[in-house]
Design goal:
The chain is α+β, with helices and mostly antiparallel strands. The chain is 21% helix and 45% strand. The longest helix is centred in the first third of the chain and has 12 residues.
Length: 257
């Protein structure tokens, strides 16, 4: 669906170790796919309950050279990558990698919002449906930025996302919630990056069965827990970092009845 996050990639320094780390925490399975003999890096598709949701690949040299650590990045479904990349620039954002074809897969461009939050524009060759429910799926996208209202103006104009309320979270400030083209609340934005002493970034939440068990497994296998686990409305969450340094979060729905 246009304007919806449909795919998540992990760019990391050790894909094999990262896959071994995440599998017992998220329940993911994986399949390495063949790449054309053009120097492209190996790529492994990750699956939740047998459904493809993203992939893992080596951190590209040019990305590492720019100072980026291992990280997750989301792909937003668009019809025309090049037109949307031009719109990113017109709205004050940046193009880090212009439209590029992946044979038999689609076309993508790596971009950033005006505050520096990175994401990817993606036009798949074949229709691709986001998998958003169940263990191992990504259930929430959170932008930690320096000016969430300015960021919101950018994303709503670019992708047609809809604002769905806000809540005050002292001492941090306002947490703005939004929905994407799927008409479900899918994420939040807040001006928290400076308070974290961190660059502007997106944080993606993976659904797990038990947040406390996931935290224990993360700590036991070389990962770090940055915050939590804590209770929120309807669930329990923790913000974490994998052994290679990529940030992610886990979410477990609270049982009802």
């Amino acid at each position: 669906m246009r304007g919806q996050i449909i795919w998540y990639d992990l760019m990391t320094t050790d894909p094999e170790a990262a896959l071994a780390f995440y599998a017992p925490i998220t329940g993911w399975t994986s399949d390495q796919i063949d790449r054309p003999t053009d120097g492209s890096p190996p790529y492994t598709v990750i699956k939740a309950a047998g459904q493809p949701i993203g992939g893992v690949l080596p951190l590209p040299g040019e990305v590492a050279a720019a100072g980026a650590p291992p990280h997750w990045i989301a792909h937003v479904h668009v019809d025309d990558v090049d037109a949307m990349a031009a719109k990113v620039e017109s709205l004050g954002g940046r193009i880090h990698r212009p439209g590029t074809d992946i044979p038999s897969v689609g076309r993508f461009a790596m971009v950033a919002d005006p505050q520096g939050g990175p994401f990817t524009l993606f036009a798949p060759t074949e229709e691709l449906t986001a998998v958003t429910e169940g263990e191992g799926t990504f259930s929430w996208a959170e932008l930690n930025t320096t000016d969430h209202e300015a960021a919101w103006d950018f994303y709503s104009n670019l992708l047609g996302w809809q604002r769905r309320g806000a809540m005050e979270m002292p001492p941090v400030g306002t947490y703005l919630m939004f929905e994407d083209a799927s008409s479900a609340t899918k994420g939040g934005m807040w001006s928290f990056a400076a308070k974290m002493n961190a660059p502007v970034h997106w944080l993606y939440y993976v659904t797990v069965r038990d947040a406390d068990a996931a935290v224990a497994a993360i700590q036991a296998t070389g990962g770090r827990v940055l915050n939590g686990p804590i209770d929120i409305e309807g669930g329990r969450i923790a913000q974490c970092m994998d052994p290679q340094g990529a940030a992610f979060a886990v979410y477990a729905e609270t049982a009802t009845g």
